[in-house]
Design brief:
Length: 387
């Protein structure tokens, strides 16, 4: 059932609009307000799927109503009702976020089409928000220890901005997870998240991989090719293991960050890009700078916000929660019922030295689920998870 609010100071027009909508679809629940102030009060107290709002009204005109509601419930589509002399104002309301406007007296087909389209748009917005929440949950960090809560707080504050982030920490701690979560909670979440593993790409190919190339730039360049920075335009590029990037490639990345411009290998033309850069490394970049393997100016460009992901040994309190999370996930992947872990089994796993961090813990949990009994016991841990 769709809830529609009609804000109109002329009672006759309110009745006509209500009658038209009721005859069109008997599932529409229609409420009325005789002025802007009453309309805003109703909107604050109810969840409407659509508002039809007159422009010229006493006390508070339709433009003021629209501006006020966009502050408190921006997702509600507004269709403005304009008199002959209000068309210029109606166009202004579109710039302020109105879905559409309808002239008085309303054309029946135009009115009904606009209402249907506006309600469809609201449904899509709600569904999109639901899916974004679902996707974000896939990248949520599991744990409630002090180090993890600190990271969560930083992400909440930093994600909505375009600040560059440098994520540090040992292998297997979840640096990629942090990068994904930053992206999913950002305004760029609907745009691409492009990941580049700088350690996995040969140094002679990294520039082409990042910035693309033109045909003939080198022997195997048989056609023009866009790079990762172009692919990530309006989104996020994640430069994983940036400490392994060659110095020439570092210089090119520095220019891209300074000027928001890149140049394909073999080309002379600059290409403008709008990309948020998130980088990660398991190396001590300050030590790399001292030894001449990493540019200090690039480090300062990247490390606007620093996030240090702790080793699993530094967050042992999170291990029971991580075990439950992985057990549920593995059971879902395998189509089996989740197995529980005895308290003594969990306690023993908390005491282990997790040199491989989260990645190693997940592997051990999977091994125990496959090889252990109905409930994973301390004995199962000793047999199948021995270090």
């Amino acid at each position: 059932m769709s809830k529609i609010l009609i804000i109109e100071d002329e009672a006759a027009i309110r009745r006509v609009l209500s009658k038209i909508l009721a005859e069109e679809n008997d599932s529409y629940k229609i409420e009325e307000a005789e002025d802007g102030q009453q309309g805003i009060e109703k909107i604050k107290e109810n969840d409407f799927d659509l508002v039809l709002c007159d422009i010229k009204m006493p006390k508070m005109d339709g433009v003021e109503v629209l501006e006020e509601v966009k502050k408190i419930k921006p997702e509600i589509p507004f269709v403005m009702i304009s008199g002959h002399g209000d068309l210029e104002t109606a166009v202004q309301t579109m710039r302020l976020g109105a879905f559409d406007y309808i002239s008085k007296p309303p054309d029946l087909n135009r009115l009904l089409n606009t209402v249907r389209n506006a309600l469809d748009r609201k449904t899509l917005v709600v569904e999109n928000k639901r899916l974004k929440k679902k996707v974000s949950k896939n990248y949520e960090m599991i744990g409630s220890s002090e180090p993890i809560n600190l990271i969560k707080d930083i992400i909440e504050k930093v994600a909505p901005t375009d600040a560059r982030v440098l994520i540090t920490g040992p292998n297997g701690t979840g640096k990629e997870l942090v990068a994904h979560w930053l992206h999913e909670k950002s305004e760029r979440s609907a745009s691409p998240f492009i990941e580049v593993n700088c350690a996995a790409i040969p140094s002679e190919l990294i520039e082409s991989e990042l910035f693309g190339h033109v045909k003939g730039a080198f022997t195997s360049a048989v056609k023009d090719r866009a790079g990762k920075f172009e692919a990530a335009d309006k989104g996020t590029i994640f430069l994983d293991e940036i400490g392994d990037m060659s110095l020439p490639a570092q210089a090119k990345v520095l220019r891209a960050l300074q000027e928001n411009m890149i140049q394909r290998v073999g080309a002379e033309k600059d290409i403008k890009v709008n990309v948020r850069v998130v980088a990660a490394t398991n190396k001590d970049l300050k030590k790399e700078i001292e030894e001449g393997r990493f540019r200090e100016d690039l480090y300062h460009r990247l490390a606007v916000i620093l996030i240090k992901v702790p080793a699993l040994n530094e967050r042992r309190d999170d291990i029971p929660e991580l075990i439950n999370h992985f057990a549920g996930k593995i059971a879902a992947e395998q189509g089996t019922a989740p197995k529980s872990f005895s308290d003594s089994a969990v306690k023993l796993l908390q005491e282990y030295d997790w040199t491989g961090n989260i990645r190693e813990l997940r592997n051990v949990v999977e091994r125990l689920i496959i090889l252990g009994g109905g409930e994973i016991s301390e004995n199962d841990v000793k047999l199948f998870a021995s270090k």
